[in-house]
From TrEMBL:
The keyword Metal-binding applies. This is 3-methyl-2-oxobutanoate hydroxymethyltransferase. The active site is at residue 183. Keywords: Cytoplasm, Magnesium, Metal-binding, Methyltransferase, Pantothenate biosynthesis, Transferase. NCBIfam families: panB (TIGR00222), PRK00311.1 (NF001452). Binds 1 Mg(2+) ion per subunit. It catalyses: (6R)-5,10-methylene-5,6,7,8-tetrahydrofolate + 3-methyl-2-oxobutanoate + H2O = 2-dehydropantoate + (6S)-5,6,7,8-tetrahydrofolate. Pathway: Cofactor biosynthesis; (R)-pantothenate biosynthesis; (R)-pantoate from 3-methyl-2-oxobutanoate: step 1/2. PANTHER family: 3-METHYL-2-OXOBUTANOATE HYDROXYMETHYLTRANSFERASE (PTHR20881:SF0). Its cofactor is Mg(2+). It comes from Flavobacterium magnum.
């Protein structure tokens, strides 16, 4: 695929090709992620945590999401760029959800929006899709509802919640969503959902039986040592490498080793 579209992703599922997705929130990182061949870049509201240092995803604003997304869009040639609708920008009513989505599409140039929830936001999803804006769903652990859940632990372990989740996934497909993220649910349930619908299911902490995987880029690069859920595979320890490099710089400056004769005019 020269350029990834929502159609390419549905084709990938049909052909059994797994979909790779990572977050990015800024130009430099998005350029690296896109060049490396990631299919989907998510401008996640996890920016609230990893970029701004908030405890939850709730504080990030629509303006801030648009700033992150426009920076990412300027870097990307190939990947599909999906932008999270932040908490408070779509829950009040379908018109607000559409207005927020239009702002994201116009002001950032993003290719699609993602919203957390199922039947509760059915009318909003319809309205956004009617305007020609592609929608990605997000079920399971939906961090914007953290104060309802109380913890970030695995969702849908009980039958009632699992049943509701399967029904919601089927509803999202029926409404016209092009893909769904499933976060932190039992692998067997995620696999069941992936088999029940023909749009791609992209998992995070949802096992290998789904159609693709997503991780937060800062987590998979090992930029923070504190967050270690079971589902996270660290591909680098950038935290150590970066603090090593930076403390070397500090000692070079202090020791008058930097700059040397060749590093000046
Ligand atoms: O905001 C985010 O990073 C996400 C992914 C974890 C799916 O929604
Ligand atoms: Na998110």
């Amino acid at each position: 695929y020269k350029k990834i579209t929502t159609k390419s992703l549905v084709e990938m599922k049909a052909n059994g090709e797994k979909i790779s997705m990572l977050t990015a929130y800024d130009f430099t990182m998005a350029k690296i992620v896109d060049t490396a061949g990631v299919d989907v870049i998510l401008v996640g509201d996890s920016a609230s945590n990893v970029m701004a240092g908030h405890e939850t995803t709730l504080p990030i604003t629509l303006d801030q999401m648009i700033y992150h997304a426009s920076s990412v869009i300027r870097a990307v040639d190939r990947a599909l760029v999906v932008v999270d609708l932040p908490f408070g920008s779509y829950q009040s009513d379908p018109k607000e959800a559409l207005r927020s989505s239009i702002r994201i599409m116009k002001e950032s140039g993003g290719h699609a929006v993602k919203l957390e929830g199922g039947r509760e936001i059915k009318e909003s999803i319809k309205k956004i899709l009617n305007a020609g804006i592609p929608v990605m769903g997000h079920l399971g652990l939906t961090p914007q509802s953290i104060y309802k859940f109380g913890t970030y632990s695995v969702r849908a372990k009980e039958d009632a919640e699992a049943e509701k989740l399967v029904e919601d996934a089927i509803l999202l497909e029926k409404l016209g969503c092009f893909a769904i993220v499933l976060e932190k649910i039992p692998a067997h349930l995620a696999e069941k959902v992936a088999r029940s619908i023909s749009i791609p299911v992209i998992g995070i902490g949802a096992g290998g039986g789904v159609d693709g995987q997503v991780l937060v880029i800062h987590d998979m690069l090992g930029m923070n040592n504190e967050f270690s859920p079971r589902f996270l595979r660290r591909y680098l320890n950038l935290y150590e490498q970066m603090t090593g490099a930076i403390s070397k710089y500090v000692s070079d400056v202090k020791g008058k080793d930097f700059p040397n004769d060749k590093e000046q005019y």
